[in-house]
Write a structure and sequence with these properties.
14 strands, 6-stranded parallel sheet, single chain
Amino acid sequence: MAIPDRIRTALQEKANGSVVAPAGYGKTETIADIVAETSCRCLLLTHTLAGVDALRKRLREKGVRSDRYQLETIAAWSLRYAAAYPVTSGFPRLVTPRGHQWSTVYASTRKLLDGRSIDRVIQASYGLVLVDEYQDCSADQHAVVVLLSRLVPTLIFGDPLQSIFDFGGEATVRWQEDVLPAFPELDELGTPWRWKNKKNDPLAEWLRIVRADLLAGKAIDLRKAPACVQVHHLDEPGRLRALEKKACGHGSLSDANRLAIIGSKSSERVRAALAKRVHAQNVETIECKDLQTACSTIEATAGMDRLTFVMGLLQRSIVGVNQTPFLRRISEIHGGKQIRKPLTAAEAAALAIVTSDKLEPVIAMLDEFRKGRRTFRGELIFALRESLQLRCLPGSPSLLECAWHVQERRRHAGRRHGYKIVTSTLLAKGLEYENSVVFLTEPATKEDIYVALTRASRRIDIVTAALDLSAK
């Protein structure tokens, strides 16, 4: 794929600028092509480790040597430079920043760059800066990139219509007010490669129209969707389960024909319940509030209270678990009732939880209830199991702290999901699937609608309460 002429001209003129990259229009390929053709060493910045992996994979496919570029998240690059010059940057040496502590990292990086003391270091290290997924920048990250762009020519790639992240109260970058004054628009990618490569021109054209309508504030007329878009009209609330089953009942799925079911953005438990009903795997967030709750509760409870919580978690994560009769039997046995039927391994583990403060019986419970059953919250159960194992080691921190280390390790290692998953726009953004089911039964922003509709390359099923779909 050739580098567009306007971008090539900007590279020759060493100009700063921005490139609008609609979903599926070859942004990663364009960035890789630029690095492959540029003679200088490039700094590539993005937001997530998944984004880093995607870019690295594409660069390897093009045979680009690793010494030709440095590829990091904006957070990792900022932390490394702030920590390398602590006196000049004023960095307080946070071992592993979390949450709002990252504001301190970015403030230190800005102070370092603004002080001009490492200008020669930066200019000797990089000849070009390329920043991916720029719409996901916080205002703090944007300020860092702007200072970098004063030292090295910088091109940023993004799409304001895919800006769906919430930084928990931190200011987010505004495209018109913040981005364009610093990085004037050079070009907008114009070829829908995601659908062109699958010879699915009708879907590509329909999504082009959808994009234009969303940007113009118009309603999307779902009656005009092509045949590869199946619309399931929820004209009565009582029909939701039937339409849900119909839309999610794809056959012949495989690793080469995957299905992403895009459900509630705000509720992990709503998505998990959907995964249970439609026989799919639930994709968990790295932060996973339910994992945090589980760790805090397990460590804070003992006896029947701990067992009751664990059983409730298993019932919400594994098909075929019924906590009521199980807890009744354990309570009776613990109370001294004579039993004829020998204890199962699960019951033995449960009694050990009731009579001991040790965490090993909880691990045994997780293992026993997974046998022969379908676990639809596998990531949650496996992360909890790893956290419990880590907590059992001598000198380990709290269970909640162990969970944080486990999730960080999983985040860096990357995650592989099954071929039928329930996810959200936040978790699916930047990813591609062959098929998708999109639930648009509640008010959604134009950004969430666009991200949800652009994940699939072959077929989309839409469950909607309105055939004229408007963004909130």
